């Protein structure tokens, strides 16, 4: 599965930071983060609370546009090694320049430059989705939406929301999503991972998104599942992430198989891959084992992802062609 071409729609740039890269950067900056790794050099945590601490410690050394340039190169090299030909990554002006528009532009410039270099070297295409952080509240989200609207275009193609799904209500963020929509950005939102089906319903009604990050807990309400299928809402499903964080006890218990069978447009992504000890290859291998999925199913998932990508039509045509000729 490693070499088959893949499209990934749900990847947090900081969350994809390879452990070896973090160790190097921390050493350079004389920051001691040795406690977050196990003996094999991978991120170590026992539960969700500890995961959040490890995540924060691992991403703390990323403090400048130059760091984000190197980070982007490291992440894309890893993605390309697992067959990813097109990727959309969540970018947070909260972490890139503390929501200051001028600083955000500098971070964005560095990230785009790195993405261009990666595309020239490995053929992998990257696009950005500016993402506000739910537990930072609606006022911070407005500033993020302004950053997104000001830099919307052929590279920043989407707007989204991540963070603690139990904080606040989707409607608190409607202003930000309206602003992003008016700027021409396509919309996605994390929902139905930690909160149940009602969170997905509220998100669709109040934020009018066309994709849902995770969305897997829709399975607890089969009427909603049918509505998602009918409306063609695309789910950015991250099974390895859900299993690692205990949303589901194992791969066979994961609802992606049922959602697919009921006609929901599902796609597969890694979320924060090294933190969940996963890669796109690992996801495909585990799914193939758990649900007996063959190459035909994965081809369908990738075509769905390419069609749901927020990129320009010419870029989409290019990706679809690469998927077809594989
Ligand atoms: Zn996510």
Task: Write up this protein.
47% of the residues are buried. The protein has 13 helices and 8 strands. An 8-stranded parallel β-sheet has the order 1-2-3-4-5-6-7-8, sandwiched between helices. The protein has 2 domains: 6-17 and 64-325, TIM Barrel, CATH 3.20.20; 19-61, no CATH class. Helix content is 48%, strand content 15%. The chain has helices at 19-28, 48-59, 65-81, 101-122, 138-151, 174-182, 197-207, 222-231, 239-244, 256-261, 280-291, 295-308, 313-325; strands at 6-12, 84-91, 125-133, 156-162, 186-191, 211-214, 234-237, 265-268. It is of the alpha/beta class and 326 residues long. The chain starts with 5 loop residues before the first strand and ends with a helix. Zinc ion (ZN) is lined by residues 10, 12, 162, 190, 213, 271.
Question: What's the quick description here?
Answer:
This protein has helices spanning 19-28, 48-59, 65-81, 101-122, 138-151, 174-182, 197-207, 222-231, 239-244, 256-261, 280-291, 295-308, 313-325, and strands spanning 6-12, 84-91, 125-133, 156-162, 186-191, 211-214, 234-237, 265-268. With 326 residues, it is of the alpha/beta class.
Lay out the secondary structure.
Layout: E1 6-12, H1 19-28, H2 48-59, H3 65-81, E2 84-91, H4 101-122, E3 125-133, H5 138-151, E4 156-162, H6 174-182, E5 186-191, H7 197-207, E6 211-214, H8 222-231, E7 234-237, H9 239-244, H10 256-261, E8 265-268, H11 280-291, H12 295-308, H13 313-325
Parallel strand pairs: 1-2, 2-3, 3-4, 4-5, 5-6, 6-7, 7-8
The structure holds zinc ion.
The site of zinc ion has 6 residues, from strand 1.
């Amino acid at each position: 599965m490693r070499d088959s071409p893949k499209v990934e729609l749900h990847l947090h740039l900081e969350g994809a930071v390879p452990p070896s890269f973090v160790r190097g950067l921390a050493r350079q900056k004389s920051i001691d983060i040795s406690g977050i790794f196990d003996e094999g050099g991978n991120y170590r945590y026992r539960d969700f609370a500890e995961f959040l601490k490890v995540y924060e410690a691992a991403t703390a050394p990323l403090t400048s546009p130059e760091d984000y340039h190197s980070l982007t190169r490291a992440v894309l090299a890893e993605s390309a090694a697992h067959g990813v030909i097109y990727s959309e990554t969540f970018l947070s002006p909260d972490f890139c320049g503390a929501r200051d528009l001028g600083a955000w532009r500098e971070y964005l410039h560095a990230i785009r430059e790195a993405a261009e270099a990666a595309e020239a070297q490995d053929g992998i295409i990257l696009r950005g989705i500016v993402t506000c952080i739910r537990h930072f509240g609606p006022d911070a989200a407005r500033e993020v939406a302004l950053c997104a609207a000001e830099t919307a275009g052929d590279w920043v193609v989407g707007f989204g929301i991540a963070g603690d799904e139990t904080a606040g209500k989707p409607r608190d963020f409607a202003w930000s999503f309206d602003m992003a929509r008016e700027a021409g950005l396509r919309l996605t939102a994390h929902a139905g991972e930690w909160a149940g089906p009602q969170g997905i319903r509220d998100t669709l009604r109040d934020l009018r998104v066309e994709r849902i990050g995770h969305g897997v807990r829709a399975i607890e309400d089969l009427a909603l599942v049918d509505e998602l299928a009918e409306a063609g809402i695309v789910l950015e499903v991250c099974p390895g992430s859900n299993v690692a964080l205990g949303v589901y006890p194992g791969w066979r218990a994961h609802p992606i198989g049922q959602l697919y069978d009921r006609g929901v447009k599902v796609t597969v992504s890694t979320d924060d891959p090294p933190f969940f000890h996963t890669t796109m290859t690992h996801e495909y291998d585990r799914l193939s084992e758990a649900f007996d999925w063959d190459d035909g199913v994965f081809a369908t998932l990738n075509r769905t992802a390419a069609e749901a990508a927020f990129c320009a039509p010419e870029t989409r045509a290019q990706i679809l062609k690469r998927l077809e000729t594989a």
